[in-house]
Amino acid sequence: MAFYQHESAIVDDGAQIGPDSRVWHFVHVCGGAQIGKGVSLGQNVFVGNKVTIGDHCKIQNNVSVYDNVHLEEGVFCGPSMVFTNVYNPRSLIERKDQYLDTLIKKGATLGANCTVVCGVTIGEFAFVGAGAVINKDVPAYALMVGVPAKQIGWMSEYGEQLDLPLEGNGEVVCSHTGERYQLTGKLLSKKT
């Protein structure tokens, strides 16, 4: 086995877990899950069948990654954050055929206790603050806080807030890395 599995963890037959990944205490990974290399699944994490988790993701304690949730490379899921997969659940009505896809793009951070309502896409290197509720798509590099979440700024790939307005035209350099970012209208991109 090329990954570490704690003796209390359950990994169902068929699950694919990449090398150097760590599956900690009381984790349950369902058989259809596809998990990349260098992933950390903290204590009491659940991973559904129709889930993909990219390389180097960190999923902290008490997170359930339900069917139709897809994490690209380097996503951080803070402790006890929540994903959903049905928009209008009812115990007495079966809605498994109504699961909505949720996509979290490369490098995004989902803060502790935030909630991501199904059917949204969170852009590359976006940063969702602790306790926020995401109910619509989030642009790349956006800093989102509140209930429901609103954008209050922009974040660098390094994870520091950038000194830019929410919209307009401008350019800024990350003080930690020297990388340059370009704001055009309501979209931020990293210059190469």
Automatic annotation (TrEMBL):
Domain of life: Bacteria
InterPro entries the UniProt entry points to: Hexapep, Trans_hexapeptide_repeat, Trimer_LpxA-like_sf
GO molecular function: transferase activity
The entry's keywords: Transferase
SUPFAM superfamilies linked to this entry: Trimeric LpxA-like enzymes (SSF51161)
Protein family per UniProt: Belongs to the transferase hexapeptide repeat family.
Protein name: UDP-2-acetamido-3-amino-2,3-dideoxy-glucuronate N-acetyltransferase
Organism field: Marinomonas aquiplantarum
